[in-house]
Design brief:
Shape: elongated
Strand content: 5-15%
Order of helices and strands: EEEHEHHHEHHHHHHHHHHEEEHHHHH
Number of helices: 19
Largest sheet: 3 strands, antiparallel
Strand order of the largest sheet: 1-2-3
Distance between the termini: 94 Å
Helix content: 40-55%
C-alpha cells in the first residue's frame, strides 16, 4: 500500500500519477499528470504527493475554467447587472489583496530608511510605501476617470476580471459595454483605495464577501444563457437566430437582474412584461432614449407618448425568453421555473392581414420593369438599358417564389443537385442537408414541383446549362451572396424592397414575401378543382405577343403579358 491514490513507484523512485478527468480529457494537453517526486524515501514522498495533488487539482480546475471561457459565446454587450457584479468582484479583490499584504507584514525602516532586522525571503513593502503606492494609483485613476480616459492597462484588466471564477464572460473588443465596464473598474479602484487609506489610519474596514447563492450550486442566469447559446448555435441556429435570442435574454437580464437561474419566478416575468409594454420598437435607434438603461428607456418612452412595440414583437420577445427557460428546466440540476409562461398576448390582426399579396396590376407593372426586359446593369437593375439579365437571381427568384410559394432563402440556397426528377416530375428539393442550408421547420423540408410556367420561361434550360459547367454541389445562383447573419434572404429582401419603391408598387404591407402570399392568398380563395392547378385557375398564363427581340432566353412571352384578370 502506498498510502495515497496518486503515489506511484518506479524502481526505487516515487512519482505523482493522476489521470486527466473525463470532462477535460479531450482538450487537456496530456493524458495524465505523471512526474517524479524526486525522492526514494516513502514518508517524504507521501508528504510531497499530497502537496503535488493539490497543485495538480488546481491545474485541472484552471484548465476547466479556461476551456469553458474559450467555448463561451463572445458577448456583444453586458447588462447593467453584469457590470455591477464585476465591479463588486474587483472591489472585493483589491481589499483582499490589501489584507494579504497586511497579514504578511511590513518591513520596518529606521530614520535613514534602512531595514531593521533581517530581510525576509519575499520582498515586503514598508507601511509608508504601501500607503503611498495606493495613493499614487488612486490619483492616476481619478485623473483618468474624470476625463473619461483609459489605457492599455485597463483594456487588459477588463478581460482578466471577466475571466475570473464566478464571472466567466467574454466580451467583444468593440462592445459599447467595454468603456462602461472600464469606468466601473476605475470606480472600484477609487472606492477601494479610500477604504485602504482608512485602514492605514487604523480604522476597521471589513473585506466584503462574495454573494452567496441561496441554492448553493445553481449557476447564474448569464452563465446558463452562455451554455444554451453555445449548444444551440452548434447545430440549430444561424447567426441571425443566435443574435436575436441573445439580445432578448440580454434585455430580460437587465430588467430582472442576473440571479441564480432557479430564483426566477412569475414576478420577474411580470416585470419583464411591464417594461416591454412601454418599450418602443428599435429602441437603440431612438435618439431620445440613447444611453439609457432598458427600464429608464421604457419609462421615458411612456412619458413622451411613444408607441410601444407591436404585439408580434412582444410575443417574439416572450418566446425567446421562454425557449431558454424551457431548455434550462431540462438542463439544470436545480428546479427551474419558466417565469414568462402564459404571458404571450393574442394578436387581434389575422396572419393573412399582416402582409398583403402583390396586387395583380402591380404584378403586371413588376414584370414589365427593366429586370424582366432589359436594364442598365446588374447593379442598376431598376434603370432601363440594353443588358439582359435572364440568368441572374434578381430575374429568377421573384418568378420562382410566385410559382412555387418557396421562401427567398430556400430558393437562394438551392444547389444544382437540389433540382431533381422523379416519376416524370421535375422538382425543387428544399432541404437542410448541408452546412449553411436552412429550413424554417421540419415541415419545411419538402419537394416542390416546378410549375409549367417556369418551364415555359426556360428554368430547366438554365439549370441544365449550369450543370454542364458546374459541380452538383455548386449553388444554382452563385451571384447571390449570403448576408452577414447567414441568410440569402437578406440581400433579396434588401434589393426587392428598394426595387418595388423604384418602380412605384411598394406599399406598407408588401415585400418579396408578398409574392409567396400571392399564391397562398389565391389558393385559399379559389374553390379546389383537382383536375386543374390553382395557378391555371386564376388565369396567370402566358400569351403570345411581340417580345421585341430583347430577351431570347424567354419563351412564350414576357411575364408582363400574362393575363391580368383573376378568375372567380
Amino acid at each position: 500500500m502506498t498510502g495515497h491514490t496518486r503515489l506511484a513507484r518506479r524502481g526505487a523512485m516515487y512519482y505523482h500519477r493522476a489521470a486527466v478527468p473525463v470532462d477535460i480529457k479531450d482538450s487537456y494537453p496530456k493524458t495524465s499528470e505523471t512526474f517524479t517526486l524526486g525522492t526514494k524515501d516513502y514518508h517524504e514522498a507521501l508528504r510531497l504527493v499530497r502537496i503535488a495533488a493539490v497543485e495538480v487539482d488546481e491545474r485541472f480546475a484552471e484548465h476547466r475554467r479556461r476551456t469553458a471561457l474559450e467555448r463561451a459565446s463572445v458577448l456583444d454587450d453586458l447588462t447593467y447587472a453584469q457590470i455591477a457584479a464585476t465591479k463588486d468582484a474587483y472591489y472585493q479583490h483589491l481589499l483582499e489583496e490589501d489584507e494579504d499584504i497586511r497579514l504578511d507584514g511590513f518591513v520596518d525602516l529606521d530614520d535613514d530608511g534602512r531595514v531593521i532586522g533581517s530581510l525576509s525571503e519575499d520582498p515586503l513593502p514598508s507601511f509608508d510605501e504601501h500607503g503611498q503606492a495606493a495613493e499614487d494609483w488612486r490619483q492616476d485613476t481619478r485623473h483618468q476617470y474624470a476625463r473619461g480616459k483609459s489605457d492599455v492597462f485597463w483594456d487588459g484588466e477588463v478581460d482578466e476580471v471577466l475571466s475570473w471564477d464566478g464571472i466567466g464572460l467574454r466580451l467583444s473588443p468593440s462592445s459599447p459595454s467595454r468603456p462602461r465596464l472600464i469606468r466601473a473598474l476605475q470606480e472600484a479602484v477609487i472606492e477601494a483605495i479610500e477604504s485602504i487609506q482608512r485602514r492605514q489610519q487604523g480604522e476597521v474596514v471589513p473585506t466584503p464577501q462574495g454573494p452567496s447563492a441561496p441554492s448553493a450550486t445553481a449557476p447564474l442566469l448569464s452563465v446558463k444563457v452562455s451554455e444554451w447559446i453555445a449548444e444551440k448555435s452548434r447545430h440549430d441556429w444561424s447567426k441571425k437566430a443566435e443574435d436575436d435570442h441573445r439580445q432578448w435574454l440580454f434585455v430580460f437580464t437587465e430588467i430582472t437582474g442576473d440571479k441564480p437561474v432557479d430564483e426566477y419566478g412569475k414576478a420577474d416575468g411580470l416585470r419583464f412584461k411591464a417594461v416591454l409594454k412601454k418599450l418602443p420598437p428599435n429602441v437603440s435607434k431612438v435618439k431620445e432614449l440613447r444611453g439609457l438603461s432598458i427600464v429608464d428607456a421604457a419609462t421615458k418612452a411612456e412619458a413622451l407618448g411613444m408607441e410601444a412595440m407591436s404585439i408580434p414583437n412582444y410575443n417574439k420577445a416572450m418566446a425567446r425568453v421562454g425557449s431558454f427557460f424551457k431548455w434550462a428546466v431540462a438542463n439544470t440540476v436545480e428546479e427551474v421555473r419558466n417565469p414568462v409562461e402564459g404571458l404571450r398576448q393574442k394578436d387581434p390582426t389575422r396572419d393573412q392581414d399582416k402582409r398583403h399579396p402583390v396586387a395583380v396590376n402591380h404584378l403586371t407593372t413588376l414584370f414589365s420593369s427593366p429586370v424582366w426586359r432589359s436594364c442598365r446593369s446588374e447593379r442598376f437593375a431598376s434603370q432601363p438599358g440594353n443588358m439582359v439579365i435572364s440568368g441572374h437571381w434578381k430575374f429568377w427568384l421573384p418568378l420562382i417564389s410566385l410559382w412555387s410559394g418557396a421562401r427567398s432563402n430556400e430558393i437562394g440556397q438551392l444547389l444544382l443537385k437540389d433540382i431533381k426528377h422523379e416519376d416524370g416530375v421535375d422538382y425543387l428539393h428544399v432541404i437542410d442537408d448541408t452546412e449553411g442550408k436552412r429550413v424554417k421547420s421540419r415541415a419545411g423540408r419538402r419537394k416542390v414541383p416546378i410549375h409549367d410556367q417556369l418551364m415555359a420561361l426556360g428554368f430547366m434550360d438554365l439549370v441544365n446549362d449550369r450543370r454542364r459547367r458546374h459541380r452538383p454541389e455548386d449553388r444554382l445562383f452563385p451571384d447571390l451572396k449570403v448576408g452577414a447573419k447567414g441568410y440569402y434572404s437578406h440581400n433579396v429582401t434588401k434589393f426587392f424592397s428598394a426595387y418595388m419603391e423604384q418602380i412605384g408598387i411598394k406599399t406598407e404591407k408588401t415585400s418579396f414575401h408578398s409574392l409567396r402570399r400571392r399564391i397562398l392568398d389565391l389558393t385559399f380563395r379559389i374553390p379546389a378543382r383537382p383536375e386543374i392547378s390553382c395557378l391555371t385557375q386564376i388565369g396567370l398564363e402566358f400569351r403570345d405577343g411581340d417580345y421585341g427581340g430583347v430577351s431570347p432566353g424567354l419563351r412564350g412571352g414576357y411575364p408582363s403579358q400574362w393575363a391580368a384578370a383573376l378568375a372567380g
